[in-house]
Amino acid sequence: MYGGGAFSREAAIIIRGEKEPRRAMPRNAFYAQSGGVTAVINASAQAVIETARKHPDKIGKVFAGRNGIIGALTEDLIDTSAESAEAIAALSKTPAGAFGSCRHKLKGFDKNLAEYERLIEVFKAHDIGYFFYNGGGDSADTCLKVSQLGEKLGYSIKAIHVPKTMDNDLPLTDTCPGFGSVAKYTAVSIREASFDLASMAKTSTKVFILEVMGRHAGWTAAAGGLAAEKDGDGPQVILFPEIVFDEAKFLAKVDATVKKVGWCTIVASEGLHAPSGEFLSEAGGKDAFGHAQLGGLAPLLANIVKEKLGLKYHWAVADYLMRAARHIASKTDLEQSYAVGKHAVELAIAGKSGVMVSIVRKSDAPYVWEVGEAPLDQVANVEKKMPRDYITGDGFHITEKCRNYLSPLIQGEDLPPFKNGLPQYIVLKNAAVPKKCKAFEVKK
Amino acid sequence: MYGGGAFSREAAIIIRGEKEPRRAMPRNAFYAQSGGVTAVINASAQAVIETARKHPDKIGKVFAGRNGIIGALTEDLIDTSAESAEAIAALSKTPAGAFGSCRHKLKGFDKNLAEYERLIEVFKAHDIGYFFYNGGGDSADTCLKVSQLGEKLGYSIKAIHVPKTMDNDLPLTDTCPGFGSVAKYTAVSIREASFDLASMAKTSTKVFILEVMGRHAGWTAAAGGLAAEKDGDGPQVILFPEIVFDEAKFLAKVDATVKKVGWCTIVASEGLHAPSGEFLSEAGGKDAFGHAQLGGLAPLLANIVKEKLGLKYHWAVADYLMRAARHIASKTDLEQSYAVGKHAVELAIAGKSGVMVSIVRKSDAPYVWEVGEAPLDQVANVEKKMPRDYITGDGFHITEKCRNYLSPLIQGEDLPPFKNGLPQYIVLKNAAVPKKCKAFEVKK
Questions:
Q1: Which of A178, A227, B203, B259 could staple A102 via S-S, CB 3.0–4.6 A?
Q2: Pairing of strands A418-419, A422-423
Q3: Helices assigned H by DSSP within A154-210
């Protein structure tokens, strides 16, 4: 046994100075889910666990963090080896985070050394040599810092980021697993609502507004544009965070559309900005990362439409429904979610660390892609917004270029199993790994 | 030709006094969609058209009203015979109203004789002897009045109501076509959102509220309860229009649930009543029937939760998305929607009039049902609310009895065809029938 010392097993092997290091004993892996969950993040979990199980010579057990990095800090680990192959295989059919997620960002080494020392204490106690973190931009930053534990604090660990964000705002990857399914949900929903509105418009509602999540980048709203395949199709108006809201232009567009088509459907990003630079609507709260908690944009826009144009409206706010909608997940997204989890393990086994698995697009039609890698220090805390040439000149729709980018991401359906008319989603046993360390309090 | 006279063809045959009336020439049928549309109302349209096509000896053409009864009043008729069998067959795969719906209720004969005389003028001009009206309670009233055209104004017509309402609030039928799909959408969505919330609750959101449509009856909210199959499952709280909102009890329930489970999901009916008897939240507008236009309950409840319990929340408002969601329609609902359309034609051919086709439940498990009929004067303007014994004693969930009633209605899936990742919904040609009458202005 090499555990318990000040250095990792690999380090220990080198210190012993053997000419040919003995074949390393398998070390355990830590996997956790972070940030807002998606309909397909569990497919990445499944891939990490299944791939690790195929390499027992390299990876011992996969310990999942209960509620993300919090699980590592509080030594609240889940023994995934207690789950059957069937249970693990059901993960890709199940939305949300099977092990619990968290919103907790590690501060810099200089500002919160205690958390890093704690991580090392827990990792060492459970012989963890691999760290797979499944999240977005904030999580990439956490993963980057874990990858630096060797250099900064002498604890060798391979840290690979497994990308996940419904917002599609990570750089250096063609898309983010989780986004394709949200995109499909948005396009399907606004198409269906447009058919509904078209039926009602003659004597009743003429404007329908769907508010979608997406804090700073308009990708999720843009996806609604895929539903409009020919002139007159809804949605006729998309409101992007990248385009400052111009009330007069908006009203003119809606008015012209209703006069021409008879009705108008609108997809509005919750992150729509007022000319002042602030979000047009804020619920008032802030999340644990200090981001404003948004919501309530749709009724605000509806009120503007009613007051200024006198049109009857309906509105919907998709919120969690869109990112949890496993029942209408994109098969392409599912495949990519699995692929990034699998490749993360393969990269770690190959000795890589400090990278994010990426999706590399080789062609649009047919959509050909492969997994790649991107350095984490170029990923963390960078938000990829919509390029201006993905948005039409008037700022209210997507261009053909954007359509060519988005369309492949929503291809394919993959219904989960249904029982009694409802999707059957797995709840794992999530057996706790016995604790070996003292208690530790995570500061908010 | 028997058209053009003061009496219908049948009447004419009798007046001629022949001993054995000659085999009646086929007369045309009028079909229209009314009120809020659903994911499956077009399945009834398909059934009416397909069944009529099988009886060319009895029914000539099926003319659809463009935008419901408005299409009859304005002589804006659609010739469905111009549509191919394939196009008609695609209707049951397409949500919303393929011919357009309306919110226009005929006033009493004494109050608006002009509209009835106009209907007779148009029906006579197009030799319409069958009237199939596809709608809810208000539409049943319209259908009833049309069925009385013979008795009151001497124009013989067979009028059959084809039930449709997502609200499930029609009496004398086991369920209303359209409801089963909304029920499935609600149960699927709140299950998915509950999985999402469970993932996030440790460090972030702890309460999620889904607002659903349903003005006076809690059926749509109740359906969310199907997602909770065992202790701890979401939703833990359902807010029904039938139970007056008690803020203190509500907060105590949410607080206890979060303390026990870690999170709480809530399905709230838009029609939730305040102790004053008013809707807890009103958007301010009224629809053409004079009903208050609701919306905005979810943020109101979320604010109460935040203010009084200090819990982070998310909320969604389903609105049109739930009733347009053909992609997750209930197969049982689709079958019933088709069956009521088919039976409506069969009843009319058999000489029935002034009735609504009903669904008759023979057993819960297995769910055995058949079509029946109910007299329209007992259907029109009657709202079927949730029986008290369908709601738990504390008023926050459904009972086993309710579950046994609801569960069969959401059974089965029936994905529409997909292309490029999106459901392919048909838009018919909707060719106009040449007008024969003078223009007529419909008063609002």
A1: B203
A2: antiparallel
A3: 179-200
* CB-based burial label for B53 (10 Å; 0-12, 13-18, 19+): middle
Whole-number Å distance between alpha carbons of A378 and A411: 29
Judge: A321–B104 Cβ closer than 8 Å, yes or no. Answer: no
Rounded to the nearest angstrom, the gap between the alpha carbon of residue A191 and the centroid of all alpha carbons in its chain is 24
- Nearest-Å Rg of the Cα atoms of chain B is 23
> In order of start, what are the domains of chain A with their CATH numbers?
9-166+329-380+417-423 (3.40.50.450), 179-328+388-410 (3.40.50.460)
Number of H helices, E strands in chain A: 14, 15
Q: Model-level pTM greater than 0.95? A: no
- Tens of pLDDT, residue by residue over A169-216, are 999 999 999 999 999 999 999 999 999 999 999 999 999 999 999 888
ipTM: 0.93
Angle, helices B331-349/B41-53, rounded to nearest 10 degrees: 40
C-alpha separations of B391 from B222, B223, B365 in Å: 8, 12, 21
- Before A275, cis peptide (omega within 30)? no
H runs (alpha helix) in B166-278 = 179-200, 219-224, 247-261
Partner B, chain A 327-366, Cβ-Cβ below 8 Å: 327-328, 330, 332
A167 as an active site residue: the answer is yes
**Nearest to residue A319, comparing CAs of B30, B45, B265, B275?**
B265
Is residue B112 exposed (0-12), middle (13-18) or buried (19+ Cβ within 10 Å)? middle
How buried is A118 (Cβ within 10 angstroms: 0-12 exposed, 13-18 middle, 19+ buried)? Answer: buried
Q: How far apart are CA A52 and CA A113, in angstroms?
A: 30
The per-type count for chain B, helices as H runs and strands as E runs, is 14, 15
Whole-number Cα distances in Å, B411 to B9, B245, B320? 45, 31, 22
